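Batch job 17 of 40 flagged for manual review because the log was empty.
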Amino acid sequence: MKISISSKYALYSLWRHSRRTILSILGIGLGCGLCLFMVGFIRGESKMMLTAAAESGNGHFRIVSTDWEQFRDNDLRLTDWEEVRKLLEGMDEIEVVTPHARKEGLLAFGTRTTGVEILGVDPNTEQAADRLVRNVTEGKFLSANETGTTVIGKAIAKRLDVTLGDELMVTAADSEGQIESAMLEIVGIVETGSDTMDSMICQVNLSDLEKLSSLKGAGDLTVLVKEPKYLDRIAVKVKGQLPEGCALVTWKEISPELAFGVEIDKTWTRLIVTIIMIVVFLGIASAQLTAVLERRREFAILAALGMKNIRLIHIMFAEGLILGLFGGLLGIIIGAPFTYLVYTKGIDFSAMYGESDITFSNVLVDPHFYGDFGWWIVPLSFVLAITASILSSLYPAWYASKTDPAVTLRVDH
């Protein structure tokens, strides 16, 4: 492969001023390494937020009645929900589908009462979809063969001063406004580590909620997908196969506050990366401009010997490209180990939050954050480094092209 004269001269110039070259590459590498770390951390945080939201009962998306987005009424029910469930379960992209029905009610034990949202579930699939009830602290989870039972959160058990085997009276208004009541035996108590979340857990068999609300069927189908990164594509596919009367809502629509928080984090990351790259850009531009000023006589002699201005510009861009390539490589060497460490070990923020719960929009978030890591760091590092170095060479290249040989040599003489 033949190397152009411009590239040879650029390499020679960088080699001749090795100290400045090393400092420029080091500045680019440090900037890119820090950017890789920040991007990896935020990408991992976004994935954690999505997983937390999806596996806290919200799902990656839900199939609801078309009126749900307007009214968000717990009394709305899906038509032909069992057929829709079979349709979804037949798709390769779907991990689990579980039905839900909700009803506001009042739990009572003796003279103690507390208001809750009672969730009707399918015991066969609920634990696969909701991580909050996967590990029942005391007792067991609901069984499809048993009715008249419930699983509650630890905070509710403390508030009502109840334990396993106690029977709670649940009272709720049915679809016609009539008061209905039933006795539910406590078969399981769940402790998530968050009093806020524990105070919201009250699950019963779907059939028990049907009797209590006088409404048949499920209010929604909560769905988890196998590959969340393809969620938008899967959602489009599912929407195209839904029957009339059904609508699809994603976790962002179910928990808009959480989605907004994730977008704010991404915005701050972009801002930080931009600031870092501006600093790198100014540093490289300063170094390149200094190099041009130091070589005014060289450029004047080259111009006097017939080298065109475009060739001088090529030299400066070649130097910038070389700095960017080596700076991008150094950025990977610096940033990859730290990014991988956060990806495997994570960062524990428990000490920062203390005993406080990390909950957003009724979603429990793990205080141990993990980053993201993959081959994406390679192109990102080189793109950042080369872009910064090329852009920072624009003004020095223009300045070099404007060199007047006669004036420069006369002044130097």
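Reviewer: the log was empty due to a logging misconfiguration, but the result itself is present. The longest helix spans residues 256-294. Unflagging and moving on to job 18.
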